[in-house]
Amino acid sequence: MLFNPNTYDPAHLDDESRRLLRALVAFFEERGKKALVKSYIDRAWYDDFLAFSAKEGLFATFLTPAADGTGDKRWDTARNAALSEILGFYGLDYWYTWQVTVLGLGPVWQSANQTQRERAADLLDEGHVMAFALSERGHGADIYATDMILTPTGDGGFTASGTKYYIGNGNVAGLVSVFGRRADVEGPDGYVFFAADSRHENYHLIRNVVNKQMYVSTFELIDYPVNAVDVLHTGKSAFDAALNTVNIGKFNLCTAAIGICEHAMYEAVTHAHQRILYGKPVTAFPHVRRELTDAYARLVAMKLFSDRAVDYFRSAGPDDRRYLLFNPMTKMKVTTEGEKVVDLMWDVIAAKGFEADTYFDKAAMDIRGLPKLEGTVHVNLALILKFMPNYLFNPAEYAPVPTRHDPADDEFLFRQGPARGLGAIRFHDWRTAYDSRADLPNVARFREQADGFCELLRAHAPSEEQQRDLDFLLAVGHLFALIVYGQLILEKGGVDDHLLDEIFAILIRDFSAYATDLHGKAATTPEQAAWALAHIRRPVVDESREAAVWQQVLALAGAYEMRP
Are 460 and 454 in contact (CB under 8 A)? Predict the structure, then answer.
């Protein structure tokens, strides 16, 4: 199930995608671990990686929509996910420059401005990266409040002045998609997205705001000339472009988390199995087996959910926007699961996890950042709650969504339309996936908890006061998210029954933990608290299942080590 550079061959993708991804793996492996670690510690800008990308046309091939390029160029979420996972595997900093290029291109590919579309395609061909300038130090990513002010010049253009903060690639981006507002227009009609160039004399780079190899800039525009041809979106369209860009780019966080955890797991299992304590390998201790098995099962679940979510992105359209639920799920749930995976392994390898020459200590630091990018966990969980009534109680009929590895252009992502109406989105019946594997004891037991959650909402729904209490709602949201998580894991399948049942044993324990949390909330009513206690469950114990999954974990020992 795990990505292994020694055996990697993405046979499910077309020949050019396979060639580029394998070339990327070869680039990192030939560069070697010492260089990878040294550049991370020295916080060295990754010129060699960007030079490789430019030479191979990596970003240009993967990030240019078919309508704006030729040959194998297209925006294909399946292969983009594969690339994102590989970059995460070798280091968050390499993934980050890719991620913010995705975001920087979002407003461009959503725009009808043909001049800027051609410019972006040309810049990608030349090997440039892009930037997405939305956030500001005083407002964060609150796009209702921006102090980037565009003053009309009388000839259809503007001058832009203001400061942007926390802008990845802002030091070198060939094209920076900048969000601002007109000085002469109040309200949403005054929003503007425009294209800037970090090399312009009126673009003033201030500094890197993080102590990292990646460059997360703050910059200031001072009377920056914005011609009519530089404008990407105005008014409500600019607002929608901002949110829809995050819809596209947010997804990549899950695959970064997966890649980070995979590399860290090879190191952790290998170290634990080779280390002898009290005359036995560390992996002989029962608590170590439990923690590593738990970490492995959680990581596989992350991959199953994320892989299946790709299919919904690729099959989306105006009448099927289910991806808008699965997107914040990948951002919130998968990335926080990544933190748990690393923590479990760190408990096993202990002091080894601090050593400078390991990948693990970088993973332990970087995995923390992903749940905090593109909106924090609580923001994404609050978003997920908008879908809950229709998801649980109002299913609709949809044609089955197939596995999507076909070399198609996912052009709908750039015509998502107005960023509203989330509560009206309908879903197919979530119970179908659970019914398909009711033969597995822990799937059946988790289904009991899921059905119980529906009964809670029917009999003891949150009151108006509770619905204004975000702390209470987040506890409810975590319970709901587990049901969604389990559904896509079951739909993806493709793993043996032992492993799948072990994953649901974990979901049962997690549901019980969140129910306990709900029980303890000050806002919880006595009836809701009683429900919470009544729905705590133990997973079905099966020693043969646990032994079989443990053998899968143990097989990781020595299976991969990055070349020196």
Answer: no
**pLDDT tens-digit readout, 137-196:** 988 767 778 999 999 998 889 999 999 999 999 999 999 999 999 999 999 999 999 999
Residues of the chain with CATH 2.40.110.10: 132-235
- From the centroid of its chain, how far is CA 134? 18
CA–CA distance, 488 with 437 (Å, rounded to integer): 12
- Residues 6+ positions from 553 with CB-CB distance below 8 Å: 269, 289, 292, 293, 296
CA distance 299 to 2: 9
**Inter-residue long-range contacts of 342-346, CB under 8 Å, 24+ positions, other chains counted:** 342/260, 342/261, 342/264, 342/367, 344/291, 344/292, 344/294, 344/295, 344/298, 345/264, 345/265, 345/268, 345/269, 345/291, 345/292, 345/295, 346/268
Q: Cα–Cα distance between 111 and 238 in angstroms, integer? A: 9
Pair 130, 123: CB distance under 8 Å: yes
Question: What whole-number distance in Å separates Cα of residue 390 and Cα of residue 42?
Answer: 50
Residues 132-235: name the CATH superfamily.
Butyryl-CoA Dehydrogenase, subunit A, domain 2 (2.40.110.10)
Residue 549: name the closest of 332, 291, 212 by CA: 291
Could you give phi then psi for residue 240, rounded to 5 degrees? -65, -40
From first CA to last CA, the distance across the chain in angstroms is 25
pLDDT digits (tens, 9 = 90+) for 54-107: 999 999 999 999 999 999 999 999 999 999 999 999 999 999 999 999 999 999
Looking at the chain, the domain(s) classified CATH 1.10.540.10 span 15-129
> What does the radius of gyration of the chain's CA atoms come to, in whole angstroms?
24
Would you state the structure tokens that stand for residue 217, as one six-digit string?
A: 């800039």
Nearest CA to 159 among 242, 218, 230, 241? 230
Neighbours of 145 (CB within 10 A): 10
DSSP for residue 136: B
210 in Cβ contact with 216 (< 8 Å): yes
Exposed / middle / buried, residue 395 (Cβ in 10 Å: 0-12, 13-18, 19+): middle
Question: Is residue 158 within a helix (H) or strand (E), and if so which, with residue range?
Answer: strand 158-168
DSSP-derived pairing of the beta strands 276-277 and 280-281: antiparallel
Which fold is adopted by the domain 15-129? Butyryl-Coa Dehydrogenase, subunit A; domain 1 (1.10.540)
What is the DSSP annotation of 427-480? ---THHHHHHTTTSHHHHHHHHHHHHHHHHHHHSPPPHHHHT-HHHHHHHHHHH
